[in-house]
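testing teh design pipeline on a random one, pls ignore if ur not involved
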């Protein structure tokens, strides 16, 4: 069993990864990006952190989105859920190459390639220091993978939900377009909702708030950022009640 890092305030985390980052800005999966993410997860798992991952599918679904124009919303959402499963398998393979044991659990039944989502089994995997990768969101249309991350965070009794993005936190405006944009060090859920800061969708924010879940928004593309977050360093933006 891995040793527990003496400085670490977070024992169990749920990491939300958007599918867009897996594509490196393009449609499909960029293996170098996936390997970079897997290495950061492997680094914290080696310190004894129990890591669950909720993964999106935007990088894959973006390629079929034009053909889905006018499609029934529920059908399109189910297609998006299948896209998350492809990303989950890519991450599992990258973790295997990084020497980390993991399991993919899907909210949609596809037993040939993934376990069904079973809360007790997922908790056992985490206790045995396997990374658990949750695919297919909540298994329901009309709910985002942000909401799935908030839900799984509560179900897994995680200490915090970590949302990995391409920027190093939540800003008053888009920092890529507004040089005067200021990064929030801390923020309340109510402030994020009222100011429409696009931290997560409103359903996910409200669920975190009502369940008193901590949320940290940070850039996983900064070397060592994930480890600094779980150590409690002042990285990114902490969203709280």
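output:
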């Amino acid at each position: 069993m891995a040793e527990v890092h003496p400085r670490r305030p977070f024992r169990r985390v749920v990491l939300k990864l958007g599918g867009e980052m897996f594509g490196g800005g393009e449609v499909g999966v960029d293996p170098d990006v996936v390997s970079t993410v897997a290495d950061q997860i492997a680094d914290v798992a080696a310190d004894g952190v129990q890591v669950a991952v909720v993964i999106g599918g935007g990088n894959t679904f973006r390629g079929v989105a034009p053909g889905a124009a006018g499609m029934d919303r529920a059908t399109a959402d189910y297609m998006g859920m299948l896209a998350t499963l492809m990303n989950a398998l890519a991450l599992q393979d990258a973790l295997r190459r990084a020497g980390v044991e993991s399991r993919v659990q899907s909210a949609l039944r596809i037993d040939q390639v993934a376990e069904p989502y079973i809360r007790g089994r997922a908790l056992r995997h985490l206790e045995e220091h396997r990374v658990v990768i949750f695919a297919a969101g909540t298994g329901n249309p009309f709910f985002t993978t942000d909401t799935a991350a908030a839900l799984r965070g509560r179900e897994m009794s995680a200490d915090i939900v970590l949302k990995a993005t391409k920027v190093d936190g939540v800003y008053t405006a888009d920092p890529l377009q507004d040089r005067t944009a200021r990064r929030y060090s801390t923020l309340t859920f109510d402030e994020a909702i009222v100011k429409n800061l696009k931290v997560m969708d409103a359903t996910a924010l409200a669920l975190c708030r009502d369940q008193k879940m901590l949320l940290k928004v940070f850039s996983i593309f900064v070397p060592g950022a994930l480890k600094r977050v779980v150590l409690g360093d002042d990285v990114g933006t902490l969203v709280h009640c």
